[in-house]
Amino acid sequence: MQKVKEKIIEAILLICSSITVLTTIGIIIILAIETFQFFKDVSIVEFFTGTEWTPLFANKKFGILPLVSGTLLTTFIAILVALPLGLTIAVYLNEYADKRFKAVIKPLLEVLAAIPTVVYGFFALTFITPILQSFIPSLAGFNALSAGLVMGIMIIPYVSSMSEDALSAVPNSLREAAYGMGSTRLQTAFKVMLPAASSGVIVSVILAISRAIGETMIVAVAAGQEPRLTFNPLNSIETITTYIVQVSMGDVPQNSIEFRSIFAAGITLFGLTFILNNISFWMKRKFVQRYE
Amino acid sequence: MNKLEAKDVNLHYGEKHALKGISMGIKANSVTAFIGPSGCGKSTFLRCFNRMNDLIDNCRVEGEILIDGRDIYKNRINVVDHRKKIGMVFQKPNPFPKSIYENVAYGLRINGISHKKYLDETVEKSLRQAALWDEVKDDLKKSALALSGGQQQRLCIARTLAVEPSVILMDEPASALDPISTAKIEELIHDLKDRYTIVIVTHNMQQAARVSDNTAFFYLGELIEYDETSNIFTNPAKEATQNYVTGRFG
Amino acid sequence: MNNARKNEIKDNAFKVFALVCTSVGLIVLGLLLYNIISVGLTRINWDFITNLPSRRPGKAGIYTALLGMIWVVTLTLIISFPIGIGAGVYLEEYGKKNPFAKFIEINIANLAGVPSIIYGILGLELFGRLLALGNSILAASLTLSLLVLPIVIVATREAVKAVPGSLREASYGLGATRWQTISRIVLPASFGSILTGLILAVSRAVGETAPLIVVGALVYVPFAPKTPMDQFTVLPIQIFNWTSRPQSGFVVNAAAAIIILLMFVFILNGFAVFLRNRHNRRVKY
């Protein structure tokens, strides 16, 4: 009797965990089916090589490259901000700062990641863009630069906290060995500790990139809705995520080709982040094994 | 008939052969001490008696272990029911993060007993048997984690007694305690002997000599010698035992 | 200049640089808060909270968005917590060595990195169209539940893992079954840390915008939702909508709504940090 009850409970708990697998399968199936439908009407070659994206116009063109370039541009700007800042902060907190300072600063920086992204969008559009415009008069009202910069600030804690964790995991004996051979603190930090923690640091950067690629509200609010194949950060652009939001907010009839295009855009986005997440997962595996 | 009986017990952890062909019998209402250097298998062997080793991955037990003549490694046995009859006290006091009362009542509650009066009586009786009642009777609702280490260990003993086992296994019950608490535990073991069969693993040879009727000496996974305690300490048959009890190694 | 002196200068230069870097993040955080408060604070009054949406910024309020958010978040809690805790317990207590559990683990790590807007697409198709829930509160809550599930699972696993094995042994030693040990010992002992994770999951759900837009949350809801099948809007979407309007009055409204939203987020996060600290100090096994 009791054995039966135990078995039933185990089965229920197993079902709970299986829901996560069903989620993944659901995402893949839904994206695949709708994208398949989409490619009945649109040439797959045009989709991946076309340089114009105008599904909502009378003359529909379905080249994803402008959305991809918009996504990569804002991501690139964000990483340009977050990588040096986050890494420097991680090294400083690990090697220089005293415990109390670290105990205050780390959670404070993590507040940056807790703020809803629509708030950052508002901040980029109404505060950062006007300030930048006073230096760069040619800056458009919606632009990749402002959105990218703010996104970069947002993902600082992803880089700094996770890299700092990786640095803390490096055995202290390594640090002592470096000091013992007469290295300065700076040399120890950058020539011994950072290389030793490199896989952890790379994981943190990859996850930050993946986060930036999938970020929606900042770019939807501040970067504009003009798909264009450009790497000029002063322009208004459109990212994959913004396009999905744009269609969802509009009155596009379901089952139309415009509607299906969000699934094609979605699978592109999913593919990009899926690859990055898997790389980071396998790196993390390797990294954990090394210090156990 | 012996209360506990082991017949040619072998135990493997993966590749490691941790217990090698151990056979011994333990009489009812006696205290038996297992001694030997660290890693000799004495704790592992103790844990065979309530199948605690089942919780460890890739652990394999061969041979027979009989309690009241029944083999507990036979397939048909219900491990959970079996463990209720065999109490266990661990090396470090491990009270649950609950009140003193709930710690003692735990074993009854998991058997579906919720009758208030019966619970109250059993809690009191068990705490009295564990010589803890007078110290905690006014604080039964207090967290068990607030007790001192020695009190915690006696609480763990009371918790074990509450389910009325016939055998109590003790895995170095006093090794984490101060001398005064240790003395109290030893006294307790002596008192409990009338009603329970007690097996105690200890590092401390004086302790074995003080509390036990019989002593078994283990070395490198083998049972080297098993005899009345007085014989083991004054007139051992084997040289290895002699060397260990006189402190030449271990 | 000798070598030692040069090294010292480099060392100090780095220290200054690092402090500047650290401050950049915090200064931006400060500017953001200052900007929003200075624009929006004076707009907050009781009418702003209790008014229905309106075309005139001065009369518009966040009542429906606030209620919609409470509905969505509460339902998300009810759906995701039991499932997430159950899954976390399974992976940590039952599935240690079976290959399926390993597979689930990889899967969860992956899910945690899927962009939230993709969950929106899943919700739109699966709950909205396939289960015909449309753009209801229930569809949105189910979508957010899947989104926060990895957070709840990971938090539960960490909490359960931290319960010392000696407590489990003691419980098994007294003849408890596996589930008795989990439900009476392991879960109560890890409750504090699980709660911390749950609160962070709620905080995430409160600020989530993109997936709800895709599922079909409306920007203009003239009535307060009464059942889970009603249409809805939430605070972040209201903010998004106001931010993209040209009239400056709506920007002020957006800032005011952001203040309310941030209050929720900060209170939840502060509470989580408080719980974590208290738990860390209290429980020493």
UniProtKB/TrEMBL annotation, chain A:
Coiled coil: none
Mode of membrane association: Multi-pass membrane protein
Recorded GO MF terms: phosphate transmembrane transporter activity
Location(s), subcellular: Cell membrane
Transmembrane segments: 12-33, 64-87, 108-129, 135-159, 192-213, 262-283
Key word Transmembrane helix present: yes
Domain ABC transmembrane type-1, residue spans: 68-280
Domain of life: Bacteria
Main location: membrane
Similarity remark: Belongs to the binding-protein-dependent transport system permease family. CysTW subfamily.
Protein name: Phosphate transport system permease protein
Species: Solitalea agri
Lineage, top ranks: Bacteria, Pseudomonadati, Bacteroidota, Sphingobacteriia, Sphingobacteriales
UniProtKB/TrEMBL annotation, chain B:
Keywords: ATP-binding, Cell membrane, Membrane, Nucleotide-binding, Phosphate transport, Translocase, Transport
Bilayer topology term: Peripheral membrane protein
Alphabetical list of CDD domains matching this protein: ABC_PstB_phosphate_transporter
GO biological process annotation, one example: phosphate ion transmembrane transport
One cellular component (GO) term of this entry: plasma membrane
Record bears the keyword Cell membrane: yes
GO molecular-function terms, A-Z: ATP binding; ATP hydrolysis activity; phosphate transmembrane transporter activity
A Pfam family it matches: ABC_tran
Matches recorded under PANTHER family: ABC TRANSPORTER I FAMILY MEMBER 17
Protein name, per record: Phosphate ABC transporter ATP-binding protein PstB
Species of the source: Solitalea agri
Gene label: pstB
Automatic annotation (TrEMBL), chain C:
GO terms, molecular function: phosphate transmembrane transporter activity
Predominant place of localization: membrane
GO CC annotation: plasma membrane
TM annotation in the entry: 12-37, 62-91, 103-124, 136-160, 181-202, 250-275
Topology in membrane: Multi-pass membrane protein
Domain ABC transmembrane type-1: 66-272
PROSITE patterns given in the database record: ABC_TM1
GO biological process: phosphate ion transmembrane transport
Localisation per UniProt entry: Cell membrane
UniProt xrefs under CDD domains: TM_PBP2 (cd06261)
Keyword terms of this UniProt record: Cell membrane, Membrane, Transmembrane, Transmembrane helix, Transport
Keyword presence, Nucleus: no
Family statement: Belongs to the binding-protein-dependent transport system permease family. CysTW subfamily.
Protein's name in the database: Phosphate transport system permease protein PstA
Species of origin: Solitalea agri
